[in-house]
Every structure is written in C-alpha cells, then in structure tokens.
Amino acid sequence: MRLRLALLLLTSTAVVLCRHIFSSSSSSSPSSSSSHLPSSEFNPLSILPRLISRPSTPPSANPQPNPEPNPNQNRNEKLPPRADATYAPPTWDNATLVLLGQRAMLFGGEFHPFRLPVPALWSDVLEKMRAAGLNAVSFYVPWALLEGRPGEVRAEGVFDVAAFCRAAAEVGLWLVARPGPYINGEVTGGGLPGWIQRLRGHPRTSDADYLAATNNYAANVGAIIAKAQINNGGKVILYQPENEYSVSRTLIGFNFPDPGYMQYVEDQARRAGVVVPFMNNDAWSAGHNAPGTGVGQVDIYGHDLAPLDPDCDDMAWEKGALRETQYANHLNVSASTPYAIPDGGVLDYWGGTGFARCAERFNAEQARVFNKNNFAAGVKIFSLYMMYGGTNWGNLGYDSGYTSYDYAAAIAEDRTLTREKYSEIKLQANFFKVSPGYLVATPDLKPTTGVYSPGHEDITVTAVVGPQGSFYVARKTAYRDASPVNFTLRLPTASKGAVTIPHLGGALTMPGRDSRIYVTDYPVGAMTLVYCTAEIFTWQKFDNGQTVAVLYGGVVGETHELLLQRGGADLQATVTRSPEVRTSLEGQFVYAQWTTTGDRQFVRVGNTYIYLVDRNAAYNYWVADTPGQPPLIVNGGYLIRSAALANGTLTIRGDFNRTTTLELIGVPQAATSLVINTTPTPHRADDDGHWLAQIAYSPPSITLPDLSAVAWSYIDTLPERQSSFSDAAWPSANHTFTNNTYLQAPQTPTSLYASDYTFHAGGALLFRGHFTATGGESAVTLHTQGGRAYAAAVWLDDEFLGGWAGNSSASSHRDTFAVRLVPGRAYALTVLLDNMGNAQNALVGGDDMKAPRGILQFNFTMGGGGAAPAVDWKVTGNLGGEDYVDKARGPLNEGGLWAERQGFHLPGAPTSSGGWTAGSSPMKGIGEPGVGFWRAEAELDIPGEQWDVPLSFEFPPIDTTGAQGRYRAVLWVNGFQFGRYISHIGPQTSVPVPEGILNYHGTNTIAVALWALQPGGARIPSLSLRAGTPVLTGRRPVVGVAAPAWTQRPGAY
C-alpha cells in the first residue's frame, strides 16, 4: 500500500552491500542497562560504507531456484498473439478504456482473498461489491504466502488465485491483477518471502540473484492470471507489475529508478502469457515508468492518492489534503492515457486508535468529498483501497500492523454493511453506470470560485464539460469546515443558455464536509435534464415503457430544483407531481422545485417518473442487473445481490436484517411470480405497476458456548526454560557469515538472524545458548530485534532474568542482566522473542525487509578482565522452517512455540496424557513468567444456511498502564492462527472469525497461548464469543475450509 504513508515509519539510511563477516564477543561494560531503539530498526549512525566488491557466498546461504537472468533482455519483446477480437484485451485513449468495443469507466475496489481464508465466502464479498455498483475488483497476490519454500509455488486452497478469478467472473466483476512480485500491502516483507533475506542481492533491484529468485513465482502466477484474461474468456483486463516503484534510500550506491529492473518484471509477465495492458501505481504523481519514458514504461499510468493523513486519532481534516491540480498534473505526466488512481487509503498500527476510530475519520463524508474531487479531476480508472480489508491471520501482516486489516473499509472485517460509507459509494458508483457522458467530458484544469457561483467565494466548483452532458462538482471552499453555506449557481446550458439556479427562488445549501455533482444537458431516456441540483442515483428505461429516475438531496429541509426538457413522445405529456413539489411550465420545459422531506416525492411527465428522496432514503435503493432485461430498481433490504427472470418467475437474492416491505420498480412484463432467495413470496402491484412484497424477519436465538466454562486442557509450552530440556534436535546457529544486507554490522561470532536458518514466520523465535561459566561473569547483555511492538524474555537455566514487554514503537531493545555463576558449571541461556513479521521494503535500496529478527548482539561483562566464555547457540522457529509442515494453512501460520511445533493447535490433538492437565483456563492463567497453552472444544449450532451470523472472540480492554500486568495472547481457531493480542499496547480486542473457519454445525478447537512477561505471571481476565446481528441471507452456501487435523509429527522437537 501507499508509500507516502509507509515513509512515516522509515528513516533515511544507507545499506551495506558486502557479505557480513562476524566479530567475536569481547569483554566490555554495557553502555546501558536498559535501552531501546525506535521503529527505524537500528541507529543510522551505525551505517557502514557501501563496498563495491562482494565476496562469494556458499550456496546453502544463497537460495537461487532459477537461472540468473539478464535484466536488459527482451526489452522489446512482442505480445503473444491475441484471441478472437470479440474478447480482445482492452484498448484505451486519453479518455477511457475501451472494453468489448465500448468506452468504460472502471470503478472498483480492492479485496485481498488471502485475507479471507474461506474461498466459499469470496463470492459473498464480491457480490457486495457488485451490489454497491462497482464493476471491478483489484487484488494483490503475496509471493510470501505462495512460495514459502524456494522453488515451490503453491496456489491452492485458501491461496487459490485461479479460484478467486473464477469467483469474480461469476459475479460479473472485471479484475485488475497486482501480483508484484513486490506489493507492499502491509504484508510481511511487503509480499517478499523471508528467504530473500539470504540473498546477496538487494530486493527490487537488478541484482541477478534477486531477479532469478522471482522467476519461478512470476512464471507460475503470471500463467494463472494469463488463463483468466479477457482474451481467454476471463475477466482480467489490467495487470500491475510491481507497486510504488517510486523512491529509494539516499546513498544507496546504484541507479534509481532502474528502467531495466522494471522492464524485467514486465517481461516476466509477457513471457507467462499476460497480454492485457500494464498499469502502474506510482507512489504519487511523479511520472515513474509513464508511457513515453522508454525502457520499463507501462501502458497506462496510475498513481496512489491517499485521501488524508493516516492519524486516526485526529478527526480534523488537515489543510491541503484535497488536491486541486490533479487533472493538470495528469496532463503533465501522462496525457495520452486515462486518468487512473489504483490505490490510496489509511493505516493503523500497534498502539493505534483502532480501525473503528479510523472508520469515523474515513467515513461517508470523507468518501463524498474526496472521491468527488477525484471525479472532478476526470478519473476514469478508480479503485477504492480497501473495499473489504479482512484479517492478517496466520502471521501474514508486516511488523507494524496488528491482526485486523479492517482498514475502515466500506465492508467491515466481519463482512457486515453497517457503515454509511458503503451506501455513499453505492450512490456514486450507480450514478456513473448511467452517465456515459462523463466518459467523454473534460475537466477544468483546476477548481474555481466565483465563476459558477457568482458572489459566493465560499463555494468551489469544478466543471467537467462534455457533449453528452456536463458535470459540476461543488463543495465548500473551506472543505474542512462543518458549517453549511447557502448559495446560488449560474451554469451554462445548451438549450437555455446561462441560467441562475434556483430559478423559482430561494437558495441552495451546501452542508459542511459535503460535495455535490450538479448535471446539465443530461439525457434521461427521451428527455433531458437541462440542470438538476439533486444528485442522480440511477435512471432506467423499462420494457413497460416507463423511465424511472431516482434523485436525492442531502439532508431533510434542503431546497432543490430541476429543469426538464420534454422530448420524443412525451413532448406534450401531462405533468403530475406530489403536492409539495412546485412546478412551472414553459413550452417543452418543466421547472420543478421541492424541499427534501422524509417522504418520497415525485414528478411525472408522461411515462417518465422522477422520484425525489433525501440521501438517507436513497441509501435504501439498489440496482440489480437482470440478465436479458433492464436492471431492476429495488427499494428496501439490507442487501440486494441479484435478480433473474426465468419462466415467468422473478427471483431476487438478497439479505434482510429487519422486517421489510420490498418495492420492485421496473418488473419485467413477462414476470408473473416472485421468489425471494428460495422462498416463493406473495406480492401485489401498486398503481404504477411496481411490485410490493413483505419480507418477514424472525431471527434465530443464538446460543454460544461460555468460554469460561468449557473444559480447557493445559500444558506448559515453554519447556525450553527448564535446565533439563534437550535442544539436541534444533538447528545449530553456527553460520559464520550472512548475506543479510540490512544496515547494521553483525556483532556476534555466528549469525543469530532467524532467517539465516530458514525461520521466517512471525510468532515465537527461540534461541538457546550453551556455555561453561568461568565464574568471572557479572552480567550478560542481549540486544534483540523482532519488529515494532515485539517482546523478548530471557532465562538462565530455570531462572527468569527479565525481558522487554514492548511498546508501540520499539523494534529492538538492549537489556543487561546481573548474573552470579559457578565456575566450571554448564549453563543454558534461553531467549524467547516475539517476531512481529518482516518490515516492508517500500524504499528501494533500504532492504528494510531484511531487518533481522533475532539477537543482534550479546556479551558478558567480565569482572577482572577475564575472557568471556564461548557460547554455542541453537535456534528454532516454526517446525521445518521453509519445509513447513502445514501446507493447507501456509508457510506463516505457525510460530516456534513448543505446542505449535507439536501441532497441538490443530483439531484432534491428544490431551489425555503427556503433561496435559485439566482444571485450568486462560482466565486463570499462570503464576510465573512463561508461556501457557490451553485448548478446548466448543460446540456451535447456528443455522448458517439461511442466516449470516458474524462471530468474534472478545478480549479485555487494553490497559496501557500495565496495571493489570503485561502479557500477550495468541488465538487459534481450528488450527488457524486468528489473533494476536497485547494487553498494554493494543489496540485490537475484538477478533472476528468467519464461518468456514468456525464450524457452525459442530465441534471447534479453540487454542490460546498466554505469554506472561512479568514476575507473578498473568491471566486473561475475560475471553468470550460474541454474535452480531443475524442477517437473513441469500449468499451462496458456506463450505468449511479443508485443512488437516493433528497427526503425530515426525521429528517434532
């Protein structure tokens, strides 16, 4: 995502290119007994000079599954031959895409299927996007999840890219593929797999080993996407290579931007069979790789545009956030292509305010003002990041992000449609579906004041003028202010010249933080709206001869006016209206003025019906595409998914959260009966021929298990802190070299970077150092690094020395612990570290994703100046590292806790022997520092076939003071890691888990790990399941995710 926001987390630094050679520990006094460095990962003062030469590296430390590429080859590679022109890839000009021979506006939203690991629910989200009027879905593909082991790409199950493309095609959405290989996206490593850390080369550069490493992924994923292209009967119409390839660290020592690198990424896609146009996503409107720039250029230029600063704690809109020169900038950068904004959004971090607060800031008002500012700039390819955010389950997120990826999206993380922003987007998207004149209209170079609203400098208007209608986007000049303004307009029209509006007297109103699109010379069937101050939701012409338009004002009490020019058979048609509507006739022209009320009003001119509602009422309307028929307008319902006519039966699929009277406007004349979802439903027709049907809502009683009363089984999952524990089977941390090119020089005799030993997944990392004491040791200092908000704890044999509980900003920390050791005695130092995921690699050359996770430095303080003992280290993370065991849940789902290595988080694990005990629970906790592990079976019986019931696990409120103790908890549901909770950092306390992960008709395995970070232990004061409002649903059936249960793991240690 959005590099502009990512820059807030990064500092300007350089990198070390050379292979690191390790130094020996030396006797020294610690510089500080307790210190930490901020989220920049390391002190920039420790930067070493970049060297020119690079010594060779043993192959075992440098995975290269593919031949070395030449980044300069195939620069002019021709596209593969196209299929039948009927299904040819889109063309384009300076105005729009041309799809299947027709101009098209792409108005879509971002949805990452990997963040909803229930393929059966992908269609639910996609249908909600289509129901909002969107016609496209944009999606990332994270390399890190598909190629956890070098050379082995697994795109199946919950990671099935082809299945997602099929689901979108079935719903009827165009697809914009964004597979990287680098994506940002708040994914660990920005989507790059952790094993990239073992390459000498720098990510996102033309270094040969990095490019070679991308080949296998690019070929496999490119081929999947190619099969789903429009020329092959699919829906993929655009392809984005790379993402935000826009900025580098300073002093990186090589050329940036590198056209050869970008060209190589593009050629990979072409070799895989991708023929659709390439579109990029520049971090801002800087012109990187724009058409005409030569090698590495894309076909269609696009740039990121984040609407507001990401600080969700500040409800104010910052000055200057609303760009007023977007169209002019576009002309300067890429005048030959349609204006494209593929990305732009919000972030929240560990210790942030939470996405619920973000949803208040990035709300319907923000979508109204900022989206319409983009329309005023003539955007024709527009994607909302995110339309549905989802969940960073299974450690897939980067180090600064927590489990939720709700993102303040229009569709909430639990897939509910309770945010007004969804309805606002629905109004906007449906308007453009019936406004082809916008596709050929040209914007002003910048907004104006006093031109279209003379005498009203407090109103700003941007004209988007075209031959098939013009669009005047108006807002308050002081767009941040919440107070309303009264004003008049003066707009040019084709049939009446310049007109002052309102013509019939009074004034228009612009509420604060609002924006309106006023139209002129706008065709509605056989008639023309000469002007209209109410906004248009939709208009449709039906097979019964009626044309119906739905117009909406803002809030109740506003004055609105339209001028309608009659035409065709309606030239002399009778005008009827609601009593509250004032009309005036001038030949073929009909003026109408009204004040918005809570009731629907109308103006009817012959067979043209114009319905007049306020915005809140308009939210209840839907437009359902009906195959073979004009779209159906539906008034009512929580969600209308689709409509279809077959053998005289009109079938509506929809969702309902209350008893509802459904009004169907434009029912096909061939329809004689009605089915709602699968239920035959009585209906009656009103005087205008609209069907009315009553939908009864009688929700089921939902009974959920009490998690404080279920039978929990307990086992200690940190046996490593016991002096008797054997780590003989663990990998030895004995590499005397590393290819890690991150900025600091190693300070240990051997590498203690987890990725050097194939451990990349977030969660627990464990190190055990064995040494024989000399007796002169008075203290041990450890400098650990785990990413933002991480924690670490240290034991000497069975003794807890202490640790770092973490805060919202520190990525590394140094601690010194006093020790008294017996000469000649063997000791084990155990270090537990919480890996928060890898940083993104937003700045090319910074190698931030290589910021190591592990021990950066350790040393003993020796009294009397004696030599420090040698330490032999062992290390572990998830069982198998890159040879991860659970292929279904992916390479990142498991960390290194002992219980995870045994697979005890999976359904069916035995708890009757082997150290398991009963009678405890996470709510009772543990009495000393360490990590406890509990599992229980919970039964559910929820009628998911007819009802969509969102469920979430609820943790206690965040206590930033730490008065109730500092602890961490991890939640697994049927083997899927679905929540990480930090009691004193937060912000997340509610963890939605979807049906399909949860078995709504049977047994569920719930597992919880509790890490007590302080003496005295810790407990989770409360943990419960909560049900949201049941929704009577027409979604497709939910099939549980196929994932293996527990079996004995050979070699588990």
3D architecture notes:
- The chain is mainly beta and 1053 residues long.
- The chain has four domains: 91-417, Glycosidases (TIM Barrel), CATH 3.20.20.80; 438-632, Beta-galactosidase, domain 2 (beta-galactosidase, domain 2, 3-layer Sandwich), CATH 2.102.20.10; 719-876, Jelly Rolls (Sandwich); 898-1032, Sandwich (Jelly Rolls), CATH 2.60.120.
- The strands form 14 sheets. Strands 13, 14, 15, 16, 21, 22, 25, 27 and 28 form a nine-stranded antiparallel beta sheet that branches.
CATH superfamily of the largest domain: Glycosidases
- Roughly what percent helix? 10-25%
Tally the structural domains: 4
* Estimated structural class: mainly beta
CATH class designation of the largest domain:
Alpha Beta
Q: What is the number of strand segments?
A: 59
Tell me, what's the shape?
Answer: globular
Count of helix runs:
12
Note the gap between the termini.
38 Å
Rg over CA atoms: 31 Å
- Which band does the percent of strand residues land in? 25-35%
What does the largest sheet look like? 9 strands, antiparallel
Tell me which CATH architecture of the largest domain applies here: Alpha-Beta Barrel
Low-confidence stretches: 8-61, 67-84
Overall residue-averaged pLDDT value: 92
Q: Output the CATH topology of the largest domain.
A: TIM Barrel
